[in-house]
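Board notes (copied after class):
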Amino acid sequence: MLNGDINATRPPTSDEEAAYRTDRKGDDLESTSPTEDRNAVGWDGPDPHNPFNWSDKKKWSNILAVSLMAVLTPLVRLLESLQSFIL
């Protein structure tokens, strides 16, 4: 038997511990009703942050920004290595 199992089955030693154990009995996941979803999210109308709802101009500007970062990052490394080779 594990130490945690022994502590779970022993009688409470204080009034506070007894109250805590009786309060915690109903806190398991099965006690919540299946119709309640704490993570449910709702909204009214189209979502402006969804990329499917962006204008073509906004989509292409984001594609251009990401593409430039992807091209310029290795280019900087190349220029640094060429500088050390030349000097």
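Comment from the instructor: Residues 53-87 form one domain. The chain is about 55% helix and 0% strand.
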